[in-house]
Amino acid sequence: MFRGEGETVEILSFIANNWLVILGLAGEHISIVVVAVGFAVLTGVPIGIAITQSKRVADMVLYAASIIVTIPSIALFGLMIPILSMIGQGIGWLPAVIAILLYSQLPIVRNTYTAITNVDPALREAATGMGMTPFQRLARLEIPIAIPVIMAGVRTAVVMNIGVAAIAAYIGAGGLGVLIARGISQTDPRQLITGAIAVSLLAIVADWALLKLQKRLTPEGLKR
Amino acid sequence: MIRLEDLTKIFRTPNGDVVAADRVNMEVPTGEICILLGPSGCGKTTALKMINRLIPPTSGKIYIDGKDTATLDDIELRRNIGYVIQQIGLFPNMTIEENICVVPRLLNWDAKKARDRAAELLDLVGLDARQYLRRFPKELSGGQQQRVGVIRALAADPPVMLMDEPFGAIDPINREIIQDEFLKMQSEMKKTIMFVSHDIDEAVKMGDKVAIFRAGKIEQYASPDRILAHPSNEFVADFVGADRTLKRLRLLTAEEVARSDAPITSRSTKIDDARQVLSAARARIAVVIDSDHRPVGFVTADEMTGASGTVRDLAHPLPATVPVRADLRAVVSEMFAQDTMWLACTDDQGRFAGVISQPDVTAALRATYTRDRRASEKLEAS
Ligand SMILES: Nc1ncnc2c1ncn2[C@@H]1O[C@H](COP(=O)(O)OP(=O)(O)OP(=O)(O)O)[C@@H](O)[C@H]1O
Ligand SMILES: [Mg+2]
C-alpha cells in the first residue's frame, strides 16, 4: 500500500486536514487508558500490598493475573459482551476500560508485591522495634521505598495498554484505533498509517512522561 | 531495672527445634550497662528482641521496672525502649533529621521540639547539625551512620536501651572513639542498657556487668573484672582468652595505682637536701620538677652519694611520662617501649601526679585476686 514519496505527501496532507479529528481520537484514547490504569493503581497497589502477608495467596493472585494477560484482547472483549450486555454496556467505552484494568493488574500487583517484599527486613524490623504500627511502617517506610518499582509497573501497564486500547475501536470504544480499523476496512493507507504512527507516538510520549513522574516521586534519599 | 525470669525461646524449624534461650535469669539494675557476650548464634539477638517483643518468648517473664511486659501494649512498650539494630537500619528515604525524629514524631512531639532535639543530639556526637540534618543516610560514612543509629534510639530519651552490636560496623580506631563518646554520654544519661557484643575488649570496656552466653544459656554473669579474674568454667576462660589478666589492665587507671607521694625535688635544690628527702621517704629515686610543677627529670640516690652541688648536675631526663588517667594497659605498654621499671604520671595540665612502677601494677592485679579470695573465704566461713 505504501509505495513512496507520493504517499508520504498524501499522508501529511491527510494529517493536516484532519488534525482536529485525530486530536479528538487521541483524547478518547488517553481517557480510556488513564481511567483504566488509574483504577488499576487504586486496586492493584492495595492488592500487591495485601498479598505480602501470605506467600500462598501471593502466588495464587500473581498466577491469576498472568493468566489474564495471556487472554487475547479480542477474546476478552468477546467474553465481556454477554456479561456487560446485562447492564446495556456490552460494547463501547466500559468494556475497554475493564479489559485494560484487568491487563494492568499483573505489572502493578507484581511490582508492588516485589517492591514491598524486597524492602530490607532489617529496616522493617527497625521500624517495628521503634514502635511503628504496621500501617505507619507501610506509609513512612515501605511505600516510599517501593515507589520507583511501583511506578515502573504503572509505566509498563500504560505502554502495553495503549496498544490494547487501539484494538478496542472494534467494540466501539473510540480512540486512535478507529483510524486503523477504518484504514483496514476502507483499504485507506493514509488512515491506517496515521493511526499506527499516532499510537506509537502516544506510547513513547506516555513512557517518557511517566519516567519523569517516576523520578519526581522517588524519595530524594533513594536516588543515585 | 530489667529482670529476665526463666526466659526461654525455642524456634520450631523443619530441621528440629532450636533452643535460642534456655531459662535465662538475670537482672540489670537501673542506670547500668549489661553486655550480652558470646559466640555467633548463642542467642544474644534473640534475648534482646524478646525484651521489646519483636520475638515472643516461648516461656518465662520479662519485667521492666517491676512491670511484666507481657501485660503492656507492644507499641507503647517499644516507643519507650531505645532500639539499635545490628545492621544500623537508617531509613534511606528519610533525611538524618527525619530518621532521628521517628520516635518523637510517633509520640506526637511538637515539630520544633523534635527538630531541636535532633540538632542537639547530632552535636553531642560531634556531627555538625547544620551540615548533616538535611543529608540522607547514603551520604554518610559507616561510622557516621552508626552514630546516627545510636542517637536515633536516644531521641525520645527512653529510660531503657537495647543495643545490638551498635559499634560493630566500624574500624577499631573509630570504634574506640565512639565507645568513649558513648560512655561519656551514659555517665550523664544513666540509662538502663542491654548491649550485645561479641568482642571481649568492648565488653570489658563498656560493661558494668557482663553476661556470657553459650547456646542460649548464661555461663557467667558478673562484673568484667570478676569474669576476667575468675572465669566460672573452661568455656568462659577460653572465651575471654588466655591473655585475660592483661585484659584486666584496662579496668584500672594509673591514678588508682600511682604513688602520688613519691619524693620530688627541683633543679636548684642542693644535693645534700635532695639526699635527705630520699632517705626520709626511704626511696631511691626522686622526680625533678620545674617551677610549674611539671616533671622534667630524675635523680638517683646512688649517684648522689658523696656528690656535691645542685640536683641540676646529676639530673637525667625522663624517658617518657603517662597521663594519670591512662589505663594500665597503656602504662605498661609505655614501660615496655621505654624499657623502664617506672614512669612519672601527669595530670590534665601536665603537672606531676605521681610515680607508677611495674611492681605497683602487679600488686594491683594481685589485689583483685586476694580481695576476691578473702571474700569467698568469708562466705564459706559464714
Ligand atoms: N527466626 C528464627 N527461626 C529459627 N531459628 C532462629 C531464628 N532466629 C534465630 N534463630 C536461631 O537461634 C539461634 C540464636 O540466634 P541469634 O540471632 O540470637 O544469635 P546471636 O547470638 O545474635 O548471633 P550473632 O552474634 O551472629 O548475631 C541461632 O542458632 C539461630 O540460628
Ligand atoms: Mg545477633
UniProtKB/TrEMBL annotation, chain B:
An example of a Gene Ontology cellular component annotation for this protein is:
plasma membrane
**What GO annotations for molecular function exist for this entry?**
ABC-type quaternary ammonium compound transporting activity; ATP binding; ATP hydrolysis activity
Q: Which SMART domains match?
A: AAA
This protein's superkingdom? Bacteria
Major place of residence = membrane
Please verify whether the record's keywords include Disulfide bond: no
Give the matching InterPro entries. Answer: AAA+_ATPase (IPR003593), ABC_transporter-like_ATP-bd (IPR003439), ABC_transporter-like_CS (IPR017871), CBS_dom (IPR000644), CBS_dom_sf (IPR046342), Gly-betaine_transp_ATP-bd (IPR005892), P-loop_NTPase (IPR027417)
Q: Specify the ABC transporter domain's residue ranges.
A: 2-240
Query: What Enzyme Commission number(s) appear in the record?
Result: 7.6.2.9
Q: Which GO terms describe its biological process?
A: amino acid transport; glycine betaine transport
Q: Membrane topology type, per the record?
A: Peripheral membrane protein
Catalytic reaction(s) noted: a quaternary ammonium(out) + ATP + H2O = a quaternary ammonium(in) + ADP + phosphate + H(+)
Keywords of this protein's UniProt record, alphabetized? ATP-binding, Cell inner membrane, Cell membrane, Membrane, Nucleotide-binding, Repeat, Transport
SUPFAM superfamilies linked: CBS-domain pair, P-loop containing nucleoside triphosphate hydrolases
- Where is this gene product found? Cell inner membrane
* Pfam families for this protein: ABC_tran, CBS
Q: How does it assemble?
A: The complex is probably composed of two ATP-binding proteins, two transmembrane proteins and a solute-binding protein.
Q: Which PANTHER family match?
A: OSMOPROTECTANT IMPORT ATP-BINDING PROTEIN OSMV (PTHR43117:SF4)
Which protein family is it in? Answer: Belongs to the ABC transporter superfamily.
* Name of the molecule in the record: Quaternary amine transport ATP-binding protein
Q: Which organism is it from?
A: Paracoccus alkanivorans
